[in-house]
Automatic annotation (TrEMBL):
SUBUNIT field: Subunit of the heterotrimeric GatCAB amidotransferase (AdT) complex, composed of A, B and C subunits.
Catalytic EC class: ligase
The protein's name: Glutamyl-tRNA(Gln) amidotransferase subunit A, chloroplastic/mitochondrial
Gene name tied to this protein: GATA
Role played: Allows the formation of correctly charged Gln-tRNA(Gln) through the transamidation of misacylated Glu-tRNA(Gln) in chloroplasts and mitochondria. The reaction takes place in the presence of glutamine and ATP through an activated gamma-phospho-Glu-tRNA(Gln).
Localization (cell): Mitochondrion; Plastid, Chloroplast stroma
EC numbers on record: 6.3.5.7
Domain Amidase, first and last residues per copy: 55-503
Note: This protein may be expected to contain an N-terminal transit peptide but none has been predicted.
Listed InterPro entries: Amidase, Amidase_CS, Amidase_dom, AS_sf, GatA
Cross-referenced HAMAP family: GatA
Length: 529
């Protein structure tokens, strides 16, 4: 058997530089700031009202939504909830940490007061009688759910083209995909239709769209956030994650939704640290704020099959980390390429079990039939999309008696090997880095009829889910397309329950990344005013 981690190699990346865009030719744009903290300060000082703030975002959503199609449902009580926050401010009542923050919620996360369809026609018009634990915690902190965001059906896809309702566009180039399956949540934050959003990540569904849309995407450790109320795809891999326009916002949102939940036996009882304590203003940083941090660049993620411009951007990110005081080495995880087939066997197997409940009787839209088997078959055939059907069939096959050992059991063995590879690499390094995807956002329709090519795009992210580790993706530069520059994200991975470390490194990285503006052209002029 190959060693899990080969001998690291010290790297020097001075010849690589990050390719960034300037908002104005004469002045560099300021680093990303926390919308959550800025808004809280403005509300408490009464510089702005919650109603005016909500109105601004709703107007922007109405203006951009015909182009983007990020949302499947927009709440009709946003202004009413904003009025309640203004009342509390007027009467000097205590405000929660997310007071007035407008949050988009992926459509597979249950909300009691609006539809939750998981992007599938079989759950059309379904309104759950409860909030997911993560949603309930946000609401207790004062957040306002602005609406439900579009997604690939049941989370099965990498482009958001697999939605049963509509195709979401990328705010940077409307002819391109926003990624998936949480493409609606990523596009909504990128276009500033909401301040932050929730997504779910089974094999990269938060991190890949974050890279494609130029926003921050945070996948927590498995068990950090309760899965209660998350429509199940692959239960041993699913996690609820966060999107924000800054690392600080993603961290603040994660803090609000984290913690043990009696309704989810897999949720951790570990104490949730104050992630905001890691955020230091750029003016207070010394010249080498990350001195002594050991960073491992995963060799397999910068080899053949990865766009050369992506490799250049990631090497530029490594160079920036070196400038901040990090020691960057190249590490090899020989089991890395094995993760992709193992992931698809395991995820498909779990989905074939989880989705059996959508039969038109227990859950799902029912089709009239004279005979029970016909009712089952016709309800599922009419309600489920082609990608979902294909993955159910793949999973059922892998779990069948004659093939269980050859496929499912072997995939579980590979999963153990992947975990050991990461454990060994993280014993020698504080964090690991890699691209979040092997390319920038591609054209709508480009890979819809080539599922193997689409699946291969998940190779950078699925191993993290197999190992149950946390990962942070944040914008690090741009690549040129034929018409517009497209954002690229760097993925940072740490040991389990070390989100605090990732947020600290990520925050310093983005605060010191000079000359980059990650505001898409669709809304750049409005936000510059």
């Amino acid at each position: 058997m190959l060693s899990s981690v080969q001998t690291p190699r010290l790297l020097r990346f001075q010849s690589f530089s990050l390719k960034c865009l300037h908002t104005h030719p004469t002045t560099a744009p300021p680093p990303p700031h926390s919308q959550i903290l800025t808004i809280r300060k403005s509300l408490l000082s009464r510089e702005i009202s919650a109603v005016d703030l909500a109105g601004t975002f709703l107007n922007r959503l109405r203006n951009t939504e015909p182009h983007l199609k990020s949302f499947l449902y927009v709440s009709d009580v946003v202004l009413k909830e904003a009025e309640e926050i203004d009342r509390k401010i007027a009467e000097n009542e205590e405000l929660g940490p997310l007071a007035g923050v407008l949050v988009g919620v992926k459509d597979n996360i249950c909300t009691s007061d609006m539809p939750s369809t998981a992007g599938s026609k079989i759950l059309e018009n379904y309104r759950p009688p409860f909030d997911a634990t993560a949603v309930g915690k946000m609401k207790k902190c004062g957040a306002i759910v602005i609406g439900k965001t579009n997604m690939d059906e049941f989370g099965m896809g990498s482009t958001t083209e697999g939605s049963g309702y509509q195709v979401t566009a990328n705010p940077w180039d409307l002819s391109r995909v926003p990624g998936g399956s949480s493409g609606g949540s990523a596009a909504a934050v990128s276009a500033r239709q909401c301040m932050v959003s929730l997504g779910s990540d089974t094999g990269g569904s938060v991190r890949q769209p974050a890279s494609f849309c130029g926003v921050v995407g945070l996948k927590p450790t498995y068990g950090r956030v309760s899965r209660y109320g998350l429509v199940a795809y692959a239960s041993s891999l699913d996690v609820i994650g966060c999107f924000g326009s800054s690392v600080a916002d993603a961290g603040i949102l994660l803090h609000a939704i984290s913690g043990h939940d009696k309704f989810d036996a897999t949720s951790s009882k570990k104490e949730v640290p104050d992630f905001a304590s890691q955020f230091t203003a750029r003016d207070h940083l010394d010249s080498k704020p990350l001195k002594g941090l050991r960073v491992g660049l995963i060799r397999e993620t910068i080899e053949d099959g990865v766009d050369p411009d992506i490799i250049s951007s990631i090497r530029g990110a490594a160079s920036h980390l070196e400038e901040l005081g990090c020691t960057v080495t190249e590490v090899s995880l020989p089991s890395f390429s094995l993760g992709l087939p193992a992931y698809y066997i395991l995820a498909s197997s779990e989905s074939s079990s989880n989705l059996s409940r959508y039969d038109g009787i227990r859950y799902g839209k029912q089709v009239f039939a004279d005979e029970l088997n016909s009712l089952y078959g016709e309800s599922r055939a009419g309600g489920l999309g082609s990608e979902v059907k294909m993955r159910i069939l793949m999973g059922t096959y892998a779990l069948s008696a004659g093939y269980y050992d050859a496929y499912y059991k072997r995939a579980q063995q590979v999963r153990t090997l992947v975990r050991e590879s990461f454990r060994a690499a993280l014993d020698e390094n504080d964090i690991l880095i890699s691209p979040a995807a092997p390319s920038a956002a591609y054209k709508i329709g480009e890979k819809k009829n080539d599922p193997l090519s689409m699946y291969a795009g998940d190779i950078m992210t699925v191993n993290v889910n197999l190992a149950g580790l946390p990962a942070l993706v944040l914008p690090c530069g741009f690549v040129d397309s034929s018409s517009v520059a497209l954002p690229v994200g760097v993925q940072m991975i740490s040991a389990a329950f070390e989100e605090e470390k990732l947020l600290k490194v990520g925050h310093i990285f983005e605060q010191t990344l000079h000359g980059c503006s990650f505001i898409p052209p669709l809304v750049a002029d409005e936000l510059a005013c």
